[in-house]
């Protein structure tokens, strides 16, 4: 419902498909099976009472009552291969720390040294008083990694997508995105003044038909995830770049789950396909492989200069903290010096994937360390997640709106620092619980 309201308020909505207005909705209480009789469906608020929907929102409390609520679980230890939740040690299979660097001593030391030198915050945006030399050093290092002329840091990856897409896609222009794009891309597209069109997941014919219907003179940006964050599959970038090129569209790739995973020394999706020159904008985040918080956009110098003066989430928000910058710089250094980490991440992925396939799980089209175990049922997703935690595994249930209703899955993600023993332990437990729910 949130999406409906936002979209209805747009001056110009998606051009050609009413379904473009219907993003998957969060599950309402009445959509949850096995609900107690007293569950009430959410209702529209009484006229004028903005908080009625708040009082009518029962889904979370009802899941809590059933002991199935899987969100905001509190971890009281470092983000590592094992974490402590409510005094229980569990194996972490739900982290985006692909290279296992979040608790690395050198990275922690670098963050501490940055606090000593610069203090704890920047107290302003990059635009005004918040630009530090360490920001420039990090931008330069990232430019070398992804082989782009210029880079701009933002305080989160979410802000990159909001700030870049909304600044570039003006009135009368178009942004075209895959339907499985990350929420931050969708929000950037909704914030933009131009028209927002979508195509079915990785359907290149649909992309082409969208582009064909746009007037040739209009500016166009095609934006996609490099690695899709829930499904773990990879965009077919060569075909996408060819089609975009034929229609004069610029290409932006979100490499949140590709940096440190794909490409030469972890440089991301464009590097993986040898297409860096054809991807105009490469977006990345520091909250996954790079053990920190923040994000970046890489492009040619003119585009970056334009963003510096037009991107509101950059100009009107405080800059990345020095400790976060220093942590990323240290993580980049380790990633370059220890390429065996990426190799180990892929070995772990292969071991887990083979084991899950042997057990008979449905893994969709995953090609990366993100392994979706499809359960295709909302309540089963919550129940499996709970059972796995009882068995000592932390996994994430993924339900609408992160995936379409009916495509519910358990998201398993590997880290370079998982041991064979941990992977085998996970497979044993997943096999046991999978059998209980008839998934294998
Ligand atoms: C594909 C994708 N893009 C962007 C983001 C946002 O990144 P950040 O956590 O840095 O805000 C995420 C985070 O979940 C993501 O998965």
Helix and strand layout, with pairings?
Blueprint: H1 2-8, H2 52-56, H3 59-65, E1 82-85, E2 88-92, H4 105-118, H5 133-146, E3 150-154, H6 157-168, E4 174-178, H7 183-191, E5 195-199, H8 204-212, E6 220-225, H9 237-246, E7 250-254, H10 269-273, E8 281-285, E9 295-299, H11 301-310, H12 312-315, H13 322-337, H14 340-359, E10 370-374, H15 378-390, E11 393-394, E12 396-398, E13 409-413, H16 420-436
Parallel strand pairs: 2-11, 4-5, 4-6, 6-7, 7-8
Antiparallel strand pairs: 1-2, 3-9, 8-9, 10-13, 12-13
Helix pairs in contact: 4-13, 5-13, 6-7, 8-9, 14-16
Shape summary: globular
The radius of gyration is 22 Å
E-strand count: 13
CATH class placement of the largest domain = Alpha Beta
Any idea what the CATH superfamily of the largest domain is called?
Type I PLP-dependent aspartate aminotransferase-like (Major domain)
Provide the residue-averaged pLDDT. Answer: 91
* Total separate domains: 3
- Sheet with the most strands, sense and barrel status: 7 strands, mixed
Helix and strand element order:
HHHEEHHEHEHEHEHEHEEHHHHEHEEEH
Give the names of the bound compounds: pyridoxal-5'-phosphate
Structural class: alpha/beta
Distance between the termini: 35 Å
**CATH topology tier name of the largest domain:** Aspartate Aminotransferase, domain 2
What is the count of DSSP helices, taking H or I runs of 4+ residues?
Answer: 16
* Percent of residues in β-strands: 5-15%
Estimate percent helicity.
25-40%
Provide a descriptive summary of the structure in words:
Helix 4 runs antiparallel to helix 13 (322-337). The chain is 39% helix and 14% strand. It is an alpha/beta fold and 440 residues long. It has three domains: 2-65, no CATH class; 82-102 and 339-436, Aspartate Aminotransferase, domain 1, CATH 3.90.1150.10; 105-337, Type I PLP-dependent aspartate aminotransferase-like (Major domain) (Aspartate Aminotransferase, domain 2), CATH 3.40.640. The two termini are 35 Å apart. The strands form three sheets. A seven-stranded mixed β-sheet has the order 3-9-8-7-6-4-5, sandwiched between helices. It has 16 helices and 13 strands. Bound molecules: pyridoxal-5'-phosphate.
